[in-house]
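Example 3.2
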Amino acid sequence: MEQPADQYLSATEIAQWLGVSRRTVTRWMQAKIIQGSQINTRWRATRRAVQDFLDRQGGRPQQDEEPQ
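Structure, written as tokens:
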């Protein structure tokens, strides 16, 4: 079953999907590498935003990529 593209995912869920740390995902969202939103103290992004990120990266994130 496909997931809706506008479903919001937590930084932890995104980290598990991408195989990186939650902190890395949070940094990427703060730097707008992944388009996300901070709701109270929690960062969230849509499944579509993560897929857009993956498309820009050629399918997989670079493990050592840090925001500039």
